[in-house]
Write a structure and sequence with these properties.
The structure holds 2 protein chains of 2 kinds. The termini of chain A are far apart. Chain A is built from 12 helices and 7 strands. Chain A has 2 domains: 52-321 and 334-381, Thiamin diphosphate (ThDP)-binding fold, Pyr/PP domains (Rossmann fold, 3-Layer(aba) Sandwich); 394-424. In chain A, 36% of the residues lie in helices and 7% in strands. Chain A is globular, with a radius of gyration of 24 Å. Chain A is of the alpha/beta class. Chain B is an alpha/beta fold. Chain B folds into 2 domains: 10-210, Rossmann fold (3-Layer(aba) Sandwich); 222-345, 3-Layer(aba) Sandwich (Rossmann fold). In chain B, 34% of the residues lie in helices and 17% in strands. Chain B has 12 helices and 14 strands. In chain B, α2 (53-57) links the parallel β2 and β3 (62-64). Chain B starts with 9 loop residues before the first strand and ends with a helix. The chains are: A alpha/beta, B alpha/beta. Chains A and B meet through α5 and α6 of A and α3, α4 and α5 of B.
């Protein structure tokens, strides 16, 4: 192959390659003063049937409802009853209590892996409360709040995390890759953004059958760079699919900041513009704004007005997972400097301001939820924890590759069983 | 091999018509079946496999898609999760790669990873193989990539009657099936002699295709020529090329048309090789890590003490499929005859 010749001498400027770099690294003092925080009542709420090109500014603004004094204001205020707000608070607090307990369980060596959603509870809890129980959710990996909001038993979640005898996925999946069809929760893949076109397919099927159910789907800002994301938006706009696309922009994809997904130059909600679909950018730490935006998008989808892309602007307070150490790549104070606060604290403040909540009730609820998680954990651990004994019959490894087991898997299964018998003796049985 | 309700009248069909008829029958029988892909709707597909289906069954059952194979297979996974039975077409097998992650990591593993919470009853139809001057992006044979995926069935018909019955069985199957259609023989079986006129399917008995519903079960090979001297394992286009060469050479060869590569009909292979003591494997795909390697390994594992000669492979070469030199690439009569001579000499 011929070598590329050196450029001839000329007065053209040298090209330069841009490699994005986050503003703050370990040791820096972060300052988010330049993030635009628009007033809570400053964002108009268009009708659910609005044309996407008439509401483009919403892709660049920020839907807000709760101000920092605990007041709910503006056209997006969903005006939820105090009972409903307390329910929302409870779901978010339970999600956090569950996260704390399971994180600790991983550190205690009871399972291999866990992922917290600290600071992002509003995105999954409030949005799930704004859709119907029958609507199908295609989650990414940080939406445990959806299962908790839909009252999926905590013990079932824990059984999956421990890959124990009670795990209905038979220990096949990495912890937190739940599957709960009866709760409208699609099997979590572990691959990134693959669920995006799948949700569109589900929504297309629902529409083609004249059903009334819609689909919602989740990914992070990092995985919005995947081709699947763009495949999904293309199909959704082509078929006007009844689907809500959620992009949780929590600023970090493991150690890569949002700039590596294109976040330096535009918003993630603005991806909607090119596809001619509705886009909303919402304060992801404001549960009422998340609720309102999702409700808007659900109404839109359900009335055949098509898909919506919602960017939840938030911050990943903890590491990516138990395998991650964020102190190695980002400034320690970023979470506390985040200008939108904590979603649980903000909803608590709102309820208190309305005279519907107080510190005592909050503390009582916190303890009650902690106790609930602890009790479930004890029950779950009776069914085993990862790495301590075998919890699934060996044959299950070969089941469900196909509906019926073909000969080559039957042969391999027999081989594996013979290996185990050789290793453990003829009387050995799985625990 | 066909199921008993194969009564009714037959009609002379080429492979395209038989494949079209399979989808027509299934669209009529099961309102969960949907057919989609690039150009498959109004136009009826670049090879005409879906001609007339949209008009007959409606736009929400048979429709065009964006040029996006990741999206085509991805939405089909979601449709399957809803309860539909999607039959996506990938216009050429060479274009399946952008959709491969959705096939390998999603469709194929959904049943397993969710322990039967969700299944993927999808049949991906796609024309494959060369011999049509398609160049390196319209000629590939990616079947061994498919058989290497756990959780996908791989089916390759070699004639109209099998094509329809196998496609119906694939559509009714509750696991994902990749249905590879040998496009060189859509209109007639190929002798391997590109300089001779194509003989239409109408001259062959297997073009008499039942008009209604029938199944050809997956996982069963067909003995298309009985013999005692050597077993030839082939599928798709190469079944016909092999038969031509064998007839010319006057060898008493047994030819197995594998029809389904996974699950493979190992019993038929084993019985035949033990009977003949010799085995030639033929495929058009590239040689290294091709499906022939798997077949050769299985034959030596199961039939070693019955073999009188080394197992031989006749394949395409390990190069991209060339445009102008495609007949030098194609495993034609000379390559097959040379291998047969060698295997019979030992």
């Amino acid at each position: 192959m011929p070598e590329t010749p050196l450029p001839a001498a000329s007065n053209l400027p040298s090209l330069s390659l841009h490699i994005p770099e986050p503003r703050y690294r370990p040791g820096d003092i972060p300052d988010f003063g330049d993030i635009v925080v628009p007033p809570v009542d400053g964002t108009p709420r268009p009708g659910e049937a609005s044309k996407p090109d008439e509401m483009r500014e919403l892709c660049y603004g920020l839907v807000r409802v709760l101000d920092f004094d605990g007041e709910a204001k503006g056209p997006w205020n969903p005006n939820l009853s105090p009972d409903r707000l307390r329910q929302m608070l409870r779901h978010m607090m339970l999600t956090r209590a569950f996260d704390d307990r399971m994180f600790r369980a991983q550190r205690q060596g009871k399972t291999s892996f866990y992922m917290k959603c600290t600071g992002e509870e509003a995105t999954s809890v409030a949005s799930t409360m704004a859709i119907d129980r029958g609507d199908m959710v295609f989650p990414s990996y940080r939406q445990q709040g959806i299962l908790i909001t839909r009252d999926y038993p905590l013990i079932q979640m824990m059984n999956q995390i421990y890959s124990n005898r009670g795990d209905h996925l038979l220990g096949r999946q990495l912890p937190i890759m739940y599957s709960a069809p009866e709760h409208g929760f699609f099997s979590v893949s572990g691959n990134l953004a693959t669920q995006y076109p799948q949700a569109v397919g589900w929504a297309m099927a629902s529409a083609s059958k004249g059903d009334s159910r819609i689909a919602t789907v989740w990914c992070g800002e990092g995985s919005s760079a995947e081709g699947d994301f763009h495949s999904a938006l293309t199909f959704a706009t082509v078929y006007n699919a009844p689907v809500i696309f959620n992009v949780v922009n929590n600023q970090w994809a493991i150690s890569s900041f949002s700039g590596f997904a294109g976040g330096e130059r535009t918003t993630f909600a603005a991806r909607a513009v090119g596809y001619g679909i509705a886009g909303l950018r919402v304060d992801g730490n404001d549960p009422l704004a998340v609720y309102a935006a999702t409700q808007w998008a659900a109404d839109r989808a359900r009335t055949n007005n098509g898909p919506t892309l919602i960017e939840h602007f938030t911050y990943r307070t903890e590491g990516h997972s138990t395998s991650d150490d964020p102190s190695a790549y980002r400034a320690a104070q970023e979470a506390s400097a985040w200008p939108f606060g904590d979603p649980i604290a903000r909803l608590k403040h709102h309820l208190e301001t309305a005279g519907e909540w107080d510190d005592d009730r909050h503390e009582t609820l916190r303890k009650e939820l902690e106790e609930l998680v602890k009790t479930s954990q004890k029950q779950s651990e009776k069914l085993g924890i990862l790495g301590h004994g075998m919890h699934q019959p060996f044959e299950t490894m070969f089941e469900d590759v196909f509906e019926d087991m073909p000969w080559h898997l039957q042969e391999q299964c027999a081989q594996m069983l013979a290996e185990q018998e050789k290793k453990f003796g003829p009387d050995w049985k799985p625990e | 091999m066909m199921t008993p309700d194969d009564t009714g009248s037959t009609k002379t069909m080429n492979m395209i018509e038989a494949i079209n008829s399979a989808m027509d029958v299934m669209l009529g029988r099961d309102d969960k079946v949907v057919v989609m892909g690039e150009d498959v709707g109004f136009f009826g597909g670049v090879f005409r496999a879906t001609a007339g289906l949209q008009k007959k069954h409606g736009k929400t059952r048979v429709f065009d898609t964006p040029i996006n194979e990741c999206g085509i297979i991805g939405v089909a996974v979601g449709m399957g999760a809803y309860g539909l039975r999607p039959v996506p077409e990938i216009q050429f097998a060479d274009y399946i790669y952008p959709g491969l992650d959705q096939l390998v990591s999603e469709a194929a593993r959904l049943r397993y990873r969710s322990a039967n919470d969700f299944i993927c009853p999808m049949t991906v139809r796609t024309p494959f193989g060369g011999g049509i001057f398609g160049g390196q992006t319209h000629s590939q044979s990616p079947e061994s990539i498919m058989t290497h995926i756990c959780g996908v069935k791989t089916v390759i018909p070699s004639n109209p009657r099998d094509a329809k019955g196998l496609l119906i069985a694939a559509i009714e199957d509750n696991d994902p099936v990749v249905f590879l259609e040998p496009k060189r023989i859509y209109n007639g079986p190929f002798s391997g002699y590109y300089d001779r006129p194509v003989e239409p399917w109408a001259k062959h008995e297997v073009s008499a295709v039942p008009e209604g519903y029938y199944r050809v079960e997956l996982g069963k090979a067909a003995t298309v020529r009985e013999g005692e001297a050597v077993t030839v394992l082939a599928y798709g286009t190469m079944v016909h090329v092999a038969k031509t060469v064998i007839d010319e050479m006057g060898i008493d060869a047994e030819v197995l048309d594998l029809r389904t590569l996974l699950p493979l009909d190992i019993d038929a292979i084993e019985a035949s090789v033990k009977k003949t003591g010799r085995c030639l494997i033929i495929h058009e795909a590239t040689r290294t890590s091709g499906f022939g390697a798997e077949l050769a390994a299985l034959v030596q594992e199961r039939c070693f003490y019955y073999l009188e000669a080394p197992v031989e492979r006749v394949t395409g070469f390990d190069t991209p499929y060339p445009h102008s030199l495609e007949w030098a690439y194609f495993p034609g009569p000379v390559r097959i005859a040379t291998a047969l001579e060698k295997i019979m000499k030992d």
